[in-house]
Amino acid sequence: MIQRLYAHGVRHVFGIPGDYVLGFYDLLEKSKLRIINTCDEQGAGFAADAYARLRGLGVVCITYCVGGLKVANTTAEAFAEKSPVVVISGAPGIKEREKNPLLHHKVREFDTQARVFKELTIASTVLSDPQTALQEIDRVLHAALRYKRPVYIELPRDLVSVPGIPHHEPREIHETSDARILAAALAEAEEMINKAKKPVIIADVEIHRFGLQDLVVKLAVQTGIPVASTLLGKSVIGENHPFYLGVYEGAMGREGVRQYVESSDCVILLGAFLTDINLGVFTARLDPARSIYSTSEKLSIRYHNYEDVRFKDFVRGLVRAKLCRRPLPRFETAGQGRGLRAVARPMSGTTVSKSAPLTVKRLFERLNSFLTDETIVVADVGDALFGAADLHIHDRTEFLGPAYYASMGFAVPAGIGAQVANPQRRPLILVGDGAFQMTGMELSTAVRYKLNPIVIVLNNAGYGTERQMQDGPYNDVVPWQYHRLPEIFGAGRGFLVKTESELDQALAAAEQHTESFCLLEVRLDPQDRSPALQRLAERLAKNI
Ligand SMILES: Cc1ncc(C[n+]2csc(CCOP(=O)(O)OP(=O)(O)O)c2C)c(N)n1
Ligand SMILES: [Mg+2]
Questions:
Q1: Which of 77, 381, 383, 405 has most ligand 1 atoms within 8 Å of its beta carbon, as the pocket-test mutant?
Q2: Closest atom, ligand 1, to C-alpha of 435
Q3: Helix axes 179-195, 311-320, angle to 10 degrees
Q4: Fewer beta carbons within 10 angstroms: which end of the chain, N or C?
Q5: With a 6 A CB cut-off, is 440 part of the ligand 1 pocket?
């Protein structure tokens, strides 16, 4: 298993040991894989998810039930948002299970945890038989890579060092499309796109997961068709490309992008998840009669469904199809009279006093100009995610956010996983005070492994996103002194930020201080919100 994980590009394993998995930890420690110990299993799960999003496969390794069930939520997120995470759990030995004794950590039956994970993964296995174990490892890892979803491997502790069958060679499995159906689908798509006056591509998360970014860029360059992304797929292609429109998210997004996409007579959705958040809580107006919808699970063109067509083959086919070349259209934003891209660029200059209290809007505008080619932005649920939609990400895949399953507590551990996956990049972690209180202690893991994320805690005294819907004392959180956490960790630098000039100073200092993490506690008015959340509220009010 260690060899196969290594062959698939894995170099790190996130987790916490326990007696049911100690034998395997010893093997890991002696292998070429490096163990990254987190404070909590949920942190390991989110870190492995970020690692998988960036490197194509991530691993979390935990002990039976007490550890395993803590990564149920992170595995659910990886499933829902298509991230290939391998969950390896220790378990009681097969011999120990005879006569059903009450061994510690057992819930109901010995297979309770395995049954939970069957529901949360695309493939799972209990390596209970040395005769089939090696095949099982290949089968399950192949499913993770094929479907970009998590898998579960349970290791009974008495079999960890039992050899499998000798001379086992992993089988390479190539699945192909049905050539005739693929040809028919491409013919219909070609005709529809060539007849269209204003086609547009929406490139989403699966383009990233299947490594098709270059093909989408090629398709856009060859045809002059502009590309929008979604919040979940944000930064799937570099946001500097001349044909990049912006993030499409229904009423929540920028008006120019919304108008362009919704007035298109041919929307080419590639690898898109039609989720409520991606579509601005279903304010998007996309007509199936004007859409080509292709994912790893489904291909439909107008009202026709095509079976047995691989996603990659369809995207490749589009690039090779005889599509007419058009001049790149000019994108206009409503009322601004400027190119859309100009608006998406970092804003400069300020008419607001530098000593005035900081607003969410100004915070994100300032962060926009702080981003460099070395930054990877990781956003947590809440206004951190909504606000980040407008950030201008330079290169592809520099943005991670749980924009569908939306589990709070993702950003700090995911930022750690992201930096372990790619040490060249410095994570900029955006996290609300509520979400920070869930997993912020994982900064301790950053200290342990000498990572240096910059963490922006948006302190609006509670669950701001929920306050917009319905308020009550249940939306308050205890006011921590977040900026003083470096005292607890014995490392890192903390900054308290209340004004724009304090933000400038803190960001400048954080840029210089690269030895350890920097935490900027940004105090915000509890009623303040990002322009994206504001836009959504305004447009909903207009439409309802
Ligand atoms: C694990 C989890 N629990 C609860 C929720 C419901 N929820 C969605 S947003 C939110 C508030 C987030 O608060 P905070 O992190 O401070 O961000 P803010 O909304 O204030 O920007 C809550 C509780 C959730 N998404 N995930
Ligand atoms: Mg908050």
A1: 381
A2: 15
A3: 50
A4: C
A5: no
The ligand 1 atom at the shortest distance from the C-alpha of residue 436 is 15
Asked if residue 435 has its Cβ within 6 Å of ligand 1, the reply is yes
Residue 67, number of CB atoms within 10 A of its CB: 27
Query: Following DSSP, what letter does each residue of 402-443 receive, concatenated?
Result: -TTT--TT-HHHHHHHHHHH-TTSEEEEEEEHHHHHHHGGGH
Hey, what are 166's tokens? 């000798």
* Token pair for 485: 């956490």
Tens digits of per-residue pLDDT, 93-147? 999 988 888 888 888 889 999 999 999 999 999 999 999 999 999 999 999 999 9
Mutate which of 465, 471, 477, 482 for ligand 1? The one with the most ligand atoms within 8 Å of its CB, which is 465
Which pLDDT band holds residue 251 (cuts at 50, 70, 90)? confident
Between the CA of 504 and the centroid of ligand 1 the distance, in Å, is: 27
* pLDDT tens-place string over residues 411-462: 999 999 999 999 999 999 999 999 999 999 999 999 999 999 999 999 999 9
- C-alpha of residue 176 to centroid of ligand 1, in Å: 42
**Residue 138 Cα to chain centre, angstroms:** 25
What is the crossing angle of helices 213-223 and 311-320, to 10°?
30
Neighbours of 422 (CB within 10 A): 18
pLDDT attached to residue 183: 97
Q: In this structure, which ligand is nearest to the CA of 438?
A: 1
- What pTM was computed for the model? 0.92
Main-chain phi, psi angles of 87, to 5 degrees: -95, 120
Nearest ligand 1 atom to the CA of 460 is 20
- Beta carbon of 233 within 6 Å of any ligand 1 atom: no
Residue 432's CB is within 10 A of a number of other CB atoms, namely 28
DSSP 327: P
- Ligand nearest, relative to CA of residue 380: 1
* Residue in 193, 187, 184 with CA at minimum distance from that of residue 265: 193
Q: Which two tokens stand for residue 135?
A: 């095949």
